Amino acid sequence: QQQVKQSPQSLIVQKGGISIINCAYENTAFDYFPWYQQFPGKGPALLIAIRPDVSEKKEGRFTISFNKSAKQFSLHIMDSQPGDSATYFCAASKAASKLTFGTGTRLQVTL
Amino acid sequence: GAGVSQSPSNKVTEKGKDVELRCDPISGHTALYWYRQRLGQGLEFLIYFQGNSAPDKSGLPSDRFSAERTGESVSTLTIQRTQQEDSAVYLCASSLALYLRVDFGPGTRLTVL
């Protein structure tokens, strides 16, 4: 049973554009929603995280938008750069004890 | 400071052999997690430790998989009688406490021939 659905599977964005990745969850007990960035051959690295008591969180060029009623959250990467090319995973957990991951989005930022 | 470290970085073994994968979490991190990542797929939860106890082992795929943690530090994931479907990257992660960031190690790439 896949509890976190992520889309799209892959994404190509021009340099300077906005990258948008979406996730939907099923378990209403989830209360922690992080996004991870993974480069080839490396472990995932925490990018940004949000809790359901806020609808948006911004850190630099990265923004999480959260819609509790729709059980959806998304990552927006503003002014996308070639260095942002990586695989992005959304995740969800209850009390951060056991992260349930989406299937990942491979982002390619072209020049 | 030092991050989560894992060893070996790569392990090639023959079907039926046992393997041990090691994780050294960030010093002071009480929570430790093991995940599995098959090629091109998302991360699959295996087991979670709080201190030396494992309150959640629900992700271990079979009784061939086991894990232990000692001294609230190093953890070992053991896979007995390896099968080809065990081939994956095994990732370890740790966190200082609940609701705080979870830091991942670089992983151990296991290949079962």
Short description:
The complex is a heterodimer of chains A (111) and B (113). Chain A has strands at residues 4-7, 10-14, 19-25, 33-38, 45-50, 56-59, 62-67, 72-77, 86-92, 100-101, 105-110. Chain A has 111 residues and is mainly beta.
Task: Provide the helix percentage of chain A.
Answer: under 10%
- In N-to-C order, the SSE pattern of chain A is EEEEEEEEEEE
Distance between the termini of chain A: 38 Å
Q: Quaternary arrangement of the chains shown?
A: heterodimer
Protein described:
- The complex is a heterodimer of chains A (111) and B (113).
- Chain A has 111 residues and is mainly β.
- Chain A is built from no helices and 11 strands.
- Chain A has strands at residues 4-7, 10-14, 19-25, 33-38, 45-50, 56-59, 62-67, 72-77, 86-92, 100-101, 105-110.
- In chain A, strands 2, 4, 5, 9, 10 and 11 form a 6-stranded mixed beta sheet that branches.
- In chain A, strand 7 (62-67) and strand 8 (72-77) form a beta hairpin.
- Helix content of chain B is 0%, strand content 50%.
- Chain B is globular and about 40 Å long.
- Chain B starts with a strand and ends with a strand.
- At the A-B interface, strand 5 and strand 10 of A face strand 4, strand 5, strand 9 and strand 10 of B.
Short key terms for the protein model shown above:
heterodimer, A: 111 residues, mainly beta, six-stranded mixed sheet, five-stranded antiparallel sheet, 11 strands, globular, B: 113 residues, seven-stranded mixed sheet, four-stranded antiparallel sheet
Write the layout of secondary structure elements.
The complex is a heterodimer of chains A (111) and B (113).
Chain A: E1 4-7, E2 10-14, E3 19-25, E4 33-38, E5 45-50, E6 56-59, E7 62-67, E8 72-77, E9 86-92, E10 100-101, E11 105-110
Parallel strand pairs in A: 2-11
Antiparallel strand pairs in A: 1-3, 3-8, 4-5, 4-9, 6-7, 7-8, 9-10, 9-11
Chain B: E1 5-7, E2 10-13, E3 19-24, E4 31-37, E5 43-50, E6 53-56, E7 65-69, E8 75-79, E9 88-95, E10 103-104, E11 108-112
Parallel strand pairs in B: 2-11
Antiparallel strand pairs in B: 1-3, 3-8, 4-5, 4-9, 5-6, 7-8, 9-10, 9-11
